[in-house]
TrEMBL record:
<keyword id="KW-0808">Transferase</keyword>
<comment type="function">
    <text>Transfers an acetyl group from acetyl-CoA to L-homoserine, forming acetyl-L-homoserine.</text>
</comment>
<comment type="subunit">
    <text>Homodimer.</text>
</comment>
<feature type="domain" description="AB hydrolase-1">
    <location>
        <begin position="42"/>
        <end position="325"/>
    </location>
</feature>
<protein>
    <recommendedName>
        <fullName>Homoserine O-acetyltransferase</fullName>
        <ecNumber>2.3.1.31</ecNumber>
    </recommendedName>
</protein>
<comment type="similarity">
    <text>Belongs to the AB hydrolase superfamily. MetX family.</text>
</comment>
<feature type="active site" description="Nucleophile">
    <location>
        <position position="137"/>
    </location>
</feature>
<keyword id="KW-0012">Acyltransferase</keyword>
<dbReference type="InterPro" id="IPR029058">
    <property type="entry name" value="AB_hydrolase_fold"/>
</dbReference>
<dbReference type="InterPro" id="IPR008220">
    <property type="entry name" value="HAT_MetX-like"/>
</dbReference>
<dbReference type="Pfam" id="PF00561">
    <property type="entry name" value="Abhydrolase_1"/>
</dbReference>
<feature type="active site">
    <location>
        <position position="291"/>
    </location>
</feature>
<feature type="active site">
    <location>
        <position position="320"/>
    </location>
</feature>
<dbReference type="InterPro" id="IPR000073">
    <property type="entry name" value="AB_hydrolase_1"/>
</dbReference>
<comment type="pathway">
    <text>Amino-acid biosynthesis; L-methionine biosynthesis via de novo pathway; O-acetyl-L-homoserine from L-homoserine: step 1/1.</text>
</comment>
<feature type="binding site">
    <location>
        <position position="321"/>
    </location>
    <ligand>
        <name>substrate</name>
    </ligand>
</feature>
<keyword id="KW-0028">Amino-acid biosynthesis</keyword>
């Protein structure tokens, strides 16, 4: 059984939270498995910052045949968010109102806008309710926003390395990455390759937030005690930047980091605590002890204020990226939690 990728086309004006609009949009999405007669086997995966619509690509330890979420049992859905460059409407898309790519004119997209688009896709797929909505990092931010804005859409929620509001620390890192892009003299151009050298530097900055001090000590140690140049840690940063610009673009990266900055479930809802206390479904929250970007205090906050919630923690060498690497502990935690709550 193979994942099936399609495109959902919404041809109407799509009003955005900050007051602008898109003249319609497209969402690339993947389904994996079959919807059962009761429509009760839906697993909706929300991807992180630079993920695509196929979790079998980037979460193959959790999604796939013989894995935690097996397409033989589940109907797995994942949609590429607006703004990303993997098939959904993005800054590289043509604006139908003038026939030119958006580029720098692409509007600010918030996490709530992303969720509103996915809710339209859910209705299009005739999914009455999502059995489990799961996401890590920006994916967890989406899942949390979704269950608050549309409380009847989801039955169980799993949040991994996520938070209720993006922190000043996280916003500062995102702004530093955008400063790197803006420092590239090509960034002012309306062209597909604008800002790529800056994007390389931005990715290098990002890697320091995704990993941990111990990660680099383990995997990028000096070749010998006498070394004075050509360090593995330095070449690794260069490699990560080069690899990233082969699969992404600066416009989408700018858009998505701005989107992450908007995350705040308490906005216009009487604050974070009020918003979280209104969640009325079983919620599993997983933190990563070594996470520098989304420290576990943020997951403690979620668990403290979401009424029917459970907190579990993994200890990963890989910091924030542990949710993309440590499949064994994640699988055991999720299986244990799912076995404890009513189906």
């Amino acid at each position: 059984m193979q994942p099936v990728t399609k495109v959902f086309k919404y041809p109407f004006q799509f009003n955005l939270e900050q007051g602008r609009y898109l003249p319609g949009f497209e969402l690339a999405y993947t389904t994996y498995g079959k919807l059962n007669e009761q429509k009760s086997n839906v697993i909706w995966v929300c991807h992180a910052l630079t993920g695509n619509a196929n979790p079998n690509d980037w979460w193959h330890g959790l999604v796939g045949e013989g894995k935690l979420y097996n397409p033989g049992e589940h109907f797995i859905v994942c949609a590429n968010v607006i703004g990303s460059c993997y098939g959904s409407t993005s800054p590289l898309s043509v604006d139908p109102e003038n026939g030119q790519p958006f580029f720098h004119r692409f509007p600010l997209i918030t996490v709530r806008d992303v969720v509103a688009a996915m809710e339209l896709l859910r209705e299009h797929l005739e999914i009455d309710s999502i059995q489990v909505c799961i996401g890590g990092s920006l994916g967890g931010q989406q899942a949390l926003e979704w269950v608050i804005e549309y409380p009847k859409a989801i039955r169980k929620l799993i949040l991994i390395a996520a938070n209720a509001s993006h922190s000043p620390w996280g916003i500062a890192f995102n702004e530093s990455q955008r400063m790197a892009i803006a420092a590239d003299h090509t960034w002012k151009n309306d062209s597909l390759d604008a800002g790529l050298e800056g994007l390389k530097a931005a990715r290098s900055i990002a890697m320091l937030t995704y990993r941990h001090y111990d990660t680099y000590n383990f995997s990028q140690a000096r070749d010998n005690s006498d070394q004075i140049d050509d360090f593995r840690a330095a070449t690794y940063q260069q490699y990560q930047g080069e690899k990233f610009i082969r699969r992404f673009n600066a416009f989408s990266y700018w858009t998505l980091t701005k989107m992450m900055d908007t995350h705040n479930v308490g906005r216009n809802r009487n604050g974070l605590v009020s918003a979280l206390q209104g969640i009325a479904l079983p919620t599993l929250i997983i933190g990563i002890a070594s996470d520098l970007l989304f420290p576990v205090r943020e997951q403690y906050f979620l668990q403290t204020h979401i009424p029917d919630s459970t907190y579990q923690e993994i200890d990963s060498l890989y910091g924030h990226d542990g949710f993309l690497v440590d499949y064994g502990p994640l699988t055991r935690i999720i299986q244990g939690w799912q076995g404890e709550i009513p189906s």
